[in-house]
Amino acid sequence: MAIQRMDNVLIVVEDLDAVISFFVELGMELEGRGPIEGRWVERVIGIDDVRQEVAMLRTPDGQGKVELAMFHTPKVIRAEPKDVPANTLGIRRIMFAVDDIEDVITRLRAHGAELVGELEQYEDIYRLCYVRGPEGIVVGLAEQLR
Length: 146
What we know:
Distance between the termini: 34 Å
Strand content: 35-45%
Helix content: 10-25%
Structural class: alpha+beta
Low-confidence stretches: none
Oligomer: single chain
Shape: globular
Radius of gyration: 16 Å
Mean pLDDT: 93
């Protein structure tokens, strides 16, 4: 067997508190938070003098996780413009299944989130949208209709 499961997705952020609040409002649970540093992490990620704070969040079912990392050293590097369009190479979004998409959008707006496009319906199966949250993080929301 090649893999057992997908464990988590890492997002590097500048404002850890704001991004944690955004994902908690979405419905994720903060699993833990703390400093990470030392030679072992430097060897794993291939960067010297690493000091970071990491938070791990999980979906309510415990299956999906998002890891957030805020680097104290070295300074973060912005690899692209903050708000790139959906056709830009690389990871563009994380998709979440939600019960009430309009309620989730309303709650996330209180954390500065904005719709990227529009809330749309795909046949009679899903209502879907992309939401841009703090630091330009894009999450997809999908409400299954049947």
